[in-house]
């Protein structure tokens, strides 16, 4: 399920207005450092802020060794590497990527030369960020730009050429804030016209009128259950042997929250031994598992994620990373802070123009300290949320993506759903010739993030065809949702997938040109898939059918948790970043190749699709990745590694 993320700038709760810099005359000793070609869809300039308005700038220093991150990650993740499984400690990660003293000194010297006194300049504990307290007027002079208040940041800004190599990005400037919205459109809709995408996002729900649900496997094509998934993906009986060493985390963003009665309704029907079990809850940044607001929009996603994760892995504990308070909410960086204290951008806090900032000074907001490194990173983390690449600058996306890579170095598997709108974005939107999303008539495909980050595992969706059985091949999901997939406009293609993607482009070239997708050799996704259709879930006191890559993602996370248990029980380490392994020839037998279906997208008009998207075919494809897992085979393959 992909939540539309609200843009914020110059104030963590500015749902109506945001402040950002726009282009102005660039002085001769300055060079453009970041640029945004267009304001995001439906945002426009309102007015200029007052010159004396306080504007605390955060300057992200260039990190050392990030150019080697992929090769470092491959060394501990590729099955042919002699260092496979030799994951790093958090201290090793921090020491390796910390910005150099030279970068910090040069930036501080630049700020002092610009007239800022030393007491206005502070450096973060992890030495990755410098904060300088400025006014709007001072920031405009420093960056040779202009700031504007936007309704409903900046085209570009500049820094001296001599310090450009030391600065990764500066906020607030060209970045609009993205986080799960508290006021977004409905995410759960009654099942509508078969084969047509919802104008909203998944998972989509509908009531089940034919209860009781059959206890066997005869009707799995109509009602997907934990038993169906075990049979479909050759899942052995799970009796965990390393529960004390193993861990599995599910990320949810407040106000989305599970209801205990919904869990027990589901468990009593499909997993009676799990009735009464609850996730281990970690509250991030004043989060609450709220039950005041109830309904599919508020409970459906969390109910679905936890019901299947817990049913499949019980008695292994599942950790719920509930993120953000009810007033301000949170972004992706907030949960990253919670599991990796070194990621906290400033004195244990986040960038106020991208994430929730705590303590929250708003009435009723969480006034406690920022949740920074409060829990060890789970060995598997499943996230059923996302945004679109056009919503974020390449610098900001790259910085966040690198953090996922660092978690991989430490042995954590990060899973993100690939989206429910095929090659399109939220609401079936594709991009026009100016890379702007349009509700209809867009022809350029709309890649998703963080699914497109090369250091996460992107999960697409399949389905059982009508009237088929669990022994019949699946197809790409085309019931109510379409498996998100395509090619990134930000990230280059990682080495681990070059052979598979090259084979696809050579043997089954898509009937599109560079005007539809990035043909220059970019990161392709998804990486793998699992069933995403007709999930039975307990939601608000009744059993519902749900659809979405958000259903597939926690299921894959459950399977990886089983694999980790087997390795840990054998005295080995977790699998960590799995992409180099699953793309390797040695792991081909561990997946069921999906060769039927496609992922249409781009709305010509309401419910009228303008393109068939990509086609599922032999081997990897940008619809279902390398296929769906055969869990028993994958356990054996991963157990054979060091």
Sequence-ordered SSE layout with sheet pairings:
Layout: E1 17-22, E2 30-35, E3 44-47, E4 54-61, H1 69-77, H2 90-97, H3 101-113, E5 121-123, E6 129-135, H4 136-143, E7 146-151, E8 156-160, E9 167-171, E10 204-207, H5 226-232, E11 248-253, H6 260-270, E12 280-284, H7 296-313, E13 319-323, H8 332-339, E14 380-383, E15 387-388, H9 394-409, E16 413-417, E17 430-431, E18 437-438, E19 448-449, E20 457-463, E21 475-476, E22 486-492, H10 498-507, E23 522-525, E24 528-531, E25 535-539, E26 542-547, H11 549-569, H12 579-582, E27 591-592, E28 601-605, E29 608-611, E30 628-629, H13 631-639
Parallel strand pairs: 11-13, 11-14, 12-13, 14-16, 16-20, 20-24
Antiparallel strand pairs: 1-7, 2-8, 3-7, 4-6, 4-9, 5-6, 10-26, 15-19, 17-18, 20-21, 22-23, 25-26, 27-30, 28-29
Helix pairs in contact: 1-9, 6-7, 7-11, 11-13
CATH class of the domain at 204-639: Alpha Beta
Arithmetic mean pLDDT: 83
- As for the CATH topology of the domain at 204-639, it is Rossmann fold
Largest sheet features:
8 strands, mixed
Helix-residue proportion: 10-25%
- Rounded to an integer, what's the Rg over CA atoms? 24 Å
Low-confidence stretches: 1-28, 36-43, 151-155, 174-202, 209-214
Distance between the termini: 35 Å
**Overall 3D form:** globular
CATH architecture of the domain at 204-639: 3-Layer(aba) Sandwich
**Total number of β-strand segments?**
30
* Residue fraction in strands: 15-25%
Count of discrete alpha- or pi-helical segments spanning 4 or more residues: 13
The computed structural class is alpha+beta
User: What's the CATH superfamily of the domain at 204-639, by name?
Assistant: Peptidase S8/S53 domain
